[in-house]
Amino acid sequence: MAEPVLVSDDGAVRTIMLFRPEQRNSLDYATGHELLRHVTEAARARSVRAIVLGGTERAFCSGDDLDALERHLNGDDSLLPACRETGDAFYLRVCEEILAAGKPVIAAVSGVAVGPGTELACAADLRVGGPGTRLGCGLIRVGHSGIFAMLSRVVGADRATELYLTGRLVEAPEALRLGLLHRVAPDDEAVAATAAALAQELAEGPTRAIALFKELRERCEGVPARQALRLQNQFHRRCWAEVHDSVEGTRAVLQRRRPRFSGR
Q: Which of 4, 54, 83, 164 has the CB geometry, 3.0–4.6 Å to 108, for a possible disulfide?
């Protein structure tokens, strides 16, 4: 049986790809478990300075596996994509790892992203799509609620509500306008390569400073502006004290040369 998640390294960039093309990269227990394991390992590996999360050309992730849902309705939860000890949905845990990862995470969103797939994409720091990319919720069609936590951070509560209530999928041009995508590759076959090139560029940057930015972003979430400004100043001082690249970057500007960032 083929592995449901494929992993490869290119220098300091690790690519983690859902690989269940016949099931449109839907999540069952084995797929969710492996995805969480690989994202967690990449997030904590010092040798990895950027992560690409992707799927196959027809689908990034189409949500929960239909066979797993059918079995659940018949009283068998063995295939549900959730931790058996805690009941946590695996996509939820993966989103937490992405948010906490001290390095940039790029979602290569080929084809469709629905439900948990949209949340995974929205948890990433940057999203690359193609002309055929479509993102949305779809839960209202099956009488469920959710897909708000990450989606609303990207498009706002009002637009997230509209996407939930209508159940519609957002196509690439609108996704670009809404911030659901940051870049659109010239064709769907180029999505993975475009995301990989962006990841390589970021991996050569001051990734320790990026880690502090991500921590600052999470700590400023929902915080009053004056408190957020104080937090920002603390992190600015932390950069000088903790980030070697902040000294290298400043010296490079003063010496009118390109910085040589080490990720420290």
A: 54
The answer for residues whose C-beta is within 8 angstroms of residue 132's C-beta and 6 or more apart is: 110, 111, 172, 188
Does one domain contain both 142 and 87?
yes
In this structure, is residue 259 part of a structural domain?
no
User: What domain count does the chain have?
Assistant: 2
Q: Does residue 170 sit within a domain?
A: yes
Nearest to 121 by CA among 33, 24, 54: 54
What sign results for the dihedral spanned by CA atoms 3, 192, 130, 92?
Answer: positive
Instruction: List pLDDT tens digits, range 172-230.
Output: 999 999 999 999 999 999 999 999 999 999 999 999 999 999 999 999 999 999 999 99
Burial (CB < 10 A; 0-12, 13-18, 19+), residue 113, is buried
Give the tokens for residue 166: 């209508």
Write the pLDDT tens digit of every residue in 58-107. 899 999 998 998 999 999 999 999 999 999 999 999 999 999 999 999 99
Whether the predicted model's global pTM rises above the 0.85 cut: yes
**β-strands 126-129, 105-109: how paired?**
parallel
